[in-house]
Every structure is written in C-alpha cells, then in structure tokens.
Design brief:
It is a single chain. The chain is mainly alpha-helical. It has 2 domains: about 40-210, no CATH class; about 225-494, no CATH class. The protein contains 20 helices and no strands. The chain has helices spanning about 5-40, 40-60, 70-75, 80-105, 110-115, 120-145, 150-175, 180-205, 210-245, 250-285, 290-325, 335-350, 355, 360-380, 385, 390-415, 420-440, 445-465, 470-480, 485-490.
Length: about 500
C-alpha cells in the first residue's frame, strides 16, 4: 500500500464518517434546548445514573468479546471464515445481552433502591432493560459496516436512530406528558428499529453460523479486555456515583452535561478517523517499514483532533448560554479539564497498536487498573470536598497514567518511531489558547463570541506556521482552496 494511497483511503472514509458525526452533533445541538427545557438538572442526573448502570452491565454481558472481530476478520484466510467470525460474535453477544436484560427487568425495584434509595425509577429501569440486547449487537453490526468501508451506511444508520429518538422524546415528554421514563421509551423504539435492521442485514450477507474455534479466539482476545473494561468504566463514570452521594442528582446532571463535550471531542475530532484506522491499521502493520505512515497519521489526526478541542474549550460556555436555561450554564466550568482527559484517552486508542498486534491485551488491563486506582483516590478523598472539579481532575490524571503505561508497553512489544516534536508543539499551543480563553472577563454574548473567534483565528495562524502540519499536506490544502474541483478529482483518483 503506497503512502499516498493509504492516506487517501483514510481521508475518503474519514470524510464520510466526519460529515456523519457532524450531522449527528448538529442534531444534538438542536435537541439540547429542547431537552434542557423538558428536563431539569436532576432529571439529567437520574438518566445519567441509569445509563451508567446499564453500561456497567454490558461488562457482565461480555461486550468486549466483540473487540477481536477486526483482528480475526483480517486474520481469516477466506470469506467463509471471515463470515464465521462475525456471525459467531453476533450470536454470542445477542444471547448474553438478552440474558442480562431479563435479569435487569426482574431486578428493577432492587436496582432503583440501590442507586436512588427509592423504587420510583423502577419503571425507567425496566424500559431500559428492553433496549439492552440491541446494545450487544451494535458493536458487531456497525463494525461490519466499517470493515466493508460502508461509511455512508454507517452514517445513515446513526442519523436515522438519532432522528427517531429525538422525535419520540418530543412526542412523549412534550405532548404526552411522560416523565423522564419517556427518554428510555424513545431510546427503545430507536434501538429496536435500527438495531433490528442491522442484524437482519448482516446475517443475510454473512449467514447464520456459530464457529467454536472463532468463539475461542474471540474469548481469548476479549476476556482480558472484559476485565479491563471494569477499570475503564470506573475511571469514566464512577465519579457520578460519588457526586450523587455528596451533592445529589442535580450536581450529577450538570457534571454529566459538561462531560458530554468530552464525548463530543471524541465523536467529532477522533472517531471519524478511528473508524477507518481501527480496521486497517493491522493491514498497514504488515507492510515493510510501516512507522512513517503510522507516525504521519498520528500527527495529522492530532492536528484535527486538538483543533476541535480548542474550539470546544473556547466556545462551550457561549453555546450553553444560547441553547439552555441559566441553571445549566455552570456545566461549562468543567469542560476544559474533561477535554484534556479525552485527549489522553484518544492517544491511548492510537498508541496501543503494538499491544494489539502482539495480542497482549493484558497490558491494557494493567494500564486501566492503574488508572482506576488513581481515579479512586481522587473520587474518595477529593470529591466530597471539591465536587465536580475533583471529579474532572481525577479523571484527567487517571487517563494520563493510562496513556503513559499503554505507550510504554506497546513500544516494548512492537516499536513504532513516532514523530513527537510536532505533537508536543501542537499540544502546548492548544493548552495555551484555551487558557487565554479562560482568562477573558465576563461579557455580553456577542462580544464574547467575537473575542473567542479572534483567539481561534490566532491559533489557526500559528498552527499553520509552526511546522506542525507537514509541508506536502499544506500544499494539498492550498490546492483545495485554490481550485476545489481539480483537487477533488485528483483526490478521488489517488
């Protein structure tokens, strides 16, 4: 695979994923003023805690068993064997998630008492349990679309699901008058329609089969990741439980809303690339001297990823002022720290290549449990005193430890010569820019937006001139600006 062709393949697919994610995020921004007027911060907190509980149950159901589909799909020698890997993973996860969903249905009152010290939310938990089987299938079916480079189908499924969910939320909460349980009913309807279609589509193409050898491979590869997912879940979500005990559901709701912008950074800034990079990086690793292509990809992904982070760090507060009642604005306070945490998180996902190539996922387990220990210390001793600030900083510290350990282990197992100097310069520039934005005094909305736009423009000028973006990539961007039609034709012919 030539390097230009390799970059072109990533670029073409990532462009589709990126447009899809941007469209989905635009829909989320449209829904934000609707949701914040239909729900209170306390409602947000309750929804977050129920969703977190079911995220934890995905661990028991073995969600990470499906993580090996990319590795073993590309490792398979013929299409029949590839189809067997996918079908086996789907059947295994559909069965395990259905069993856990049934258990959650019958345990709803107990779960509500455990989380909220009341059985008031048992109905919401039961409705959420009905969506649970689809959570097990999504990873495999959407992964199938990614491996076949069906980016457009992947994007359309996500958009259709989001549109259905938003429409149902408006109907059920705004017109029917349901309480927060309506959010879970809307999710159930959207998941059933899109998840059912995905399962039928994939099995129609792969056939229905359960291959014991494929199941053993997936279990061997995925079980260490199941263990590590406990630690990842704890680092990412357990702070909400500690916040609830010390400060109540409203504080959880505000923190969760601020945390959403960390997820947004991943979804807009990193996920479009990772959806392409994740399946093909094993293919790239087979080539002679893959380090230059891998290192160049890391630099370019960071150029876009960190630029999105700078934009979120500068404009989140003004976005909340536009799109939500004043009771939600304080959520912006924690966003810059959460963004830092998710920069570390994204780096871990890219830099773990050596671990995945050598199939030594035990090192990811080690990294995640070390990070969980760091997070636990912060959650136990700092959250009762400093609240959401402590939660955010503890998460950032934990993810920082994680990326250091993962990078060290991956390099020991399968060395890649990364080009760190431009990434370090870019990171310093991003942190400085967001810091300048934080120093701005309180001002009316329009002057605030204009001031932040000026800061963003200075950032972009420095980024262009700081020898961070490789010269040949700058030349390609100039071609796009000067003659977009010719540049697109040349790009498509690569």
């Amino acid at each position: 695979m030539s390097q230009p062709g390799f970059r072109s393949r990533i670029g073409k697919q990532a462009l589709l994923y990126g447009l899809g994610v941007i469209a989905a995020r635009a829909l989320s921004f449209v829904s934000l003023p609707i949701m914040t007027r239909l729900l209170t911060p306390a409602d947000y907190g309750v929804i977050q805690l129920i969703e977190m509980t079911f995220d934890m149950l995905t661990i028991l159901a073995g969600s990470r068993i499906g993580a090996g589909i990319y590795r073993f799909y590309h490792k398979a020698e013929d299409q029949e064997e590839k189809n067997g890997v996918l079908s086996t993973a789907l059947l295994f996860l559909l069965t395990s998630f259905s069993l856990i969903g049934v258990a959650a249905w019958f345990s709803a009152e107990w779960m509500s008492q455990l989380i909220f010290e009341t059985d008031r939310y048992a109905t919401a938990i039961r409705v959420a349990s009905l969506s649970f089987p689809w959570m097990g299938t999504m990873g495999v079916t959407l992964g199938y679309l990614r491996m076949l480079d069906r980016a457009l189908s992947w994007v359309l499924v996500g958009l259709v699901k989001s549109v259905i969910q938003l429409i149902m939320v408006v109907i059920l909460l705004g017109f029917v008058g349901m309480d927060l349980t309506g959010v879970f009913v809307a999710t159930l309807i959207a998941n059933t329609l899109t998840g059912g279609w995905l399962v039928l589509t994939m099995l129609r193409e792969t056939g229905v089969s359960f291959v014991p050898s494929a199941a053993r491979d997936l279990l061997r590869f995925g079980m260490p990741l199941v263990v590590t997912q406990v630690a990842t879940f704890f680092t990412t979500f357990a702070d909400r439980y500690f916040l609830q005990k010390s400060f109540g559901e409203s504080e959880v709701g505000l923190y969760a809303l601020g945390y959403t912008f960390g997820f947004l950074l991943m979804q807009v800034g990193y996920t479009p690339f990772s959806h392409v990079w994740g399946p093909i990086r094993f293919e790239v690793a087979k080539k002679d001297n893959p380090s230059p292509a891998i290192a160049r990809t890391f630099v370019l992904i960071n150029c876009f990823f960190l630029t999105v982070g700078v934009g979120l760090g500068l404009f989140t507060y003004d976005l909340l002022r536009i799109m939500s009642p004043a009771t939600f604005w304080r959520a912006a306070d924690f966003v810059p720290i959460v963004l830092l945490a998710y920069v570390f998180h994204a780096w871990s996902g890219f830099l773990n290549l050596g671990i995945m190539i050598r199939e030594q996922t035990k090192f990811i387990t080690l990294a995640d449990w070390l990070s969980a220990a760091v997070a636990l210390a912060g959650y136990l001793y700092l959250i009762p005193i400093y609240g959401s600030w402590a939660a955010a900083w503890s998460t950032a510290a934990a993810f920082g430890v994680r990326v250091v350990v993962i990078h060290w282990a991956a390099q020991k197992l399968w060395y890649v010569e990364y080009d760190w100097p431009p990434v370090i310069r870019l990171s310093a520039l991003a942190v400085t820019t967001v810091g300048v934005g934080l120093l701005l005094p309180e001002m009316p909305l329009v002057p605030s937006i204009l001031a932040r736009m000026g800061i963003m423009l200075v950032y972009l000028v420095i980024l262009w001139n700081a020898r961070i973006i490789p010269e040949d990539e700058q030349d390609r961007l100039r071609d796009w600006i000067r003659d977009p039609k010719s540049a697109i034709r040349a790009y498509q012919n690569r």
